[in-house]
Every structure is written in C-alpha cells, then in structure tokens.
Amino acid sequence: MGYHDVGPLRISPSHTADDWSQLVPDAKADWARAVEILRDRIDGRFLDHARNCLQSETSGFVVLAIDCMLIEALEQFRRGIVDGRGQSGELIRSFLAGPRFQPHFCSVAANAFYEDIRCGLLHQAEARRLWLIRRSQAELLVTKRETDTDVGYIIDVVKFHEALESAFDDYLNELVDPDREQLRENLWTKMNHICQVRRQRAGLFG
Q: Each residue of 44-69: pLDDT tens digit?
C-alpha cells in the first residue's frame, strides 16, 4: 500500500476532522454530536479493545496498560491540554482522586500506581515493586502494609476498568450540561488540536 492509499484520516472510527469542524460550540444539538464523536473515539481506540482483552484471564497487564493511556488522555481532554509531555504523573494522580476511585486511592497509593503500574507497564512491561494484579477480589484495591516503607497492593483489574468506564460516562454526562462551560471549552481546545494534527498528516501522506 502506497502513501496515497491511506484513505481519510479519522479522529475516531466513524468520524473525520471535517465532521468535528462542522460543529458549532453554541448549538445544543451539536453538543450531543460532540459527545457522540468523543465516545466513538474513546470506545473505538481504547475501551472496545480493553473489553475484548478482559475476556482472557491473562490480560491484566495489557488492560491496565490501555487504561493508563486512557486516563492520561481523558485528563487532557478535561483540562484542554494539547501536549501532556512531562505531566503524566500529575494527570494520573489527579484522575485517581476522582470519586469513582475513592476511597481506594489515597495520595500515596495513587503515586505508587503511577510509578509502579503506569511507568512499570509502559516502560518495562511489568508491574514494579510490591504490586499484584488479580480478579474477583472484594475491593478494587487492597493494601498490604508490612512496615512504613514496605507497602504492597493488590489491584482488581476488572473493578479498576469498570471504575474507569464509569468515570468516562460521568465526564460525558458533564459535557451535555450547558453550565459546564470551562469543561466544554477544554474539550473543544483539545479536539481542535487533534483535528489540526490529522489535517497535517493528510497533507503529508495524502
């Protein structure tokens, strides 16, 4: 396949940058459409694949790796960040402070998740230090404290992913609320940047 066969570059499985550019931020009907496009992007590029992977009993690492990428992406959408380089730790910790992950993730556990799960899986393809990934436990996160410095965690990958999906649904529900002006503006900033990048790629490879 040559460069001229790449086809339209999409921002989600079913939508192109032109679909987004036709929306008007002040139009109520267009906000329903904007939420649909965002859901299609997140479902099609992350959640659908994580759901499929969860069918395998040995998929804990890959599902949490997908979830970590998605957490950073969603937090960038919420804040309108177009380039999150150098901000990964703060984005992860902030997201885990949300209600769907409380009271399981205190600040210490959230930072350990970033260092040992997010960085461990994405950089070394393994969980670092005293973490175990399990299923079917009673709590999302179980803490095992031996000493003040030796703290272990058992994370339930299914419950964690379910909490992430619920947090995403919460975000979409917030976006349809016209009083959430800043949240809407941040989404528009991020998505406009994504569309700009897509057009640049189309100009280079199309």
A: 999 999 999 999 999 999 999 999 99
Q: What is the DSSP letter of 99?
A: G
Length of the chain in terms of residues written: 206
Dihedral (Cα; 135, 141, 142, 148), 10-degree rounding: 140
* Region 157-174 average pLDDT: 98
In this predicted model, which residue has the larger pLDDT, 136 or 8?
A: 136
Average pLDDT (90-97) is 98
The amino acid sitting at 67 is D
Pick from 143, 181, 139, 171: which is nearest to 156 by CA?
Answer: 139
Token representation of residue 73: 């992406």
Distance CA 163, CA 192 (A): 28
What amino acid occupies position 158? V
Q: Are 117 and 155 in contact (CB under 8 A)?
A: yes
> In the numeric block, which tokens belong to residue 129?
């230090």
